[in-house]
Every structure is written in structure tokens, then in C-alpha cells.
Amino acid sequence: MPEYTDLTASAAIVNAFITKYNQLKSIYPEAVIELCDDQGHQITEVKKINSELIELIIDDSQGPKFRYIHPSQFDLTFTVKQ
User: Fold this and answer.
1) Is the predicted pLDDT of residue 76 greater than 50, yes or no?
2) Rounded distance, CA 25 to CA 22, Å?
3) How far from 17 is each of 1, 28, 43, 62, 63, CA to CA, in Å?
4) Which residue of 24, 33, 45, 54 is most buried, as measured by CB atoms within 10 A?
5) What is the pLDDT of residues 13-66, one digit of tens each?
6) Range of 77's domain?
7) Domain annotation covers residue 51
8) Is residue 2 part of a domain?
9) Other CB atoms within 10 A of residue 27 CB
10) Does residue 28 form part of some domain?
11) Where are the beta strands (DSSP E) in 8-75?
12) Is residue 1 one of the residues assigned to a domain?
């Protein structure tokens, strides 16, 4: 079980993620930026539900899948494809 951080730090993690994504979009405007979770699933949307819950919408051939995580479990990877 992961060790949960305080909620202020968790909110900072989500904000840092959004900032980095926006930086990549401005640096590589023509590139495709893919976002994947720690299991390699492509994430199409990230929503902060509240200070303790984040919703990940996963692209799947059978339709979208929804995964809910605590901010301390936030482990996503950006891939820039030019």
C-alpha cells in the first residue's frame, strides 16, 4: 500500500503535471503527446475529482475505462511523437 502524502502536496503534484503538459504542447506544437499510466494504457483524460481522488479515462477498443487513484499514486508518463 502506498504511503499517502498530505493533501496540499497531492494537489501540487496534479498542478505540476498540468504545467508540464502545457510546456510540452508549446515546445512541440506539431507533435502528438501521448499520456500513459504505469501499466502502459493510453490516458485520454485526467480529472481531479477532489483533493483525494483523480479520475483517469483510459482509451480502450471496447470503450472508455475509468480508473480512480489517490494523488500519491499519480504515476503517468508523457511520450512525445514527432
Assistant:
1) yes
2) 5
3) 23, 16, 13, 28, 25
4) 54
5) 777 878 888 999 999 999 998 888 888 889 888 877 777 788 889 988 888 899
6) 7-81
7) yes
8) no
9) 10
10) yes
11) 32-36, 43-50, 53-58, 65-69
12) no
Angle made by CA atoms 49, 2, 75, in degrees to the nearest 5? 60
Gap between the Cα atoms of 72 and 53, Å rounded: 10
User: What total number of domains does the chain contain?
Assistant: 1
Q: What is the mean pLDDT of residues 1-23?
A: 69
Q: What cell does 58 get? A: 483510459
State which H helix or E strand residue 17 sits in.
helix 7-27
Q: Give pLDDT, residue 24.
A: 93
User: Quick one: cell of 61?
Assistant: 477498443
Give the list of residues 6+ apart from residue 76 with CB closer than 8 angstroms, or none: 17, 35, 36, 37, 38, 43, 46, 56
Q: What is the pLDDT of residue 1?
A: 39
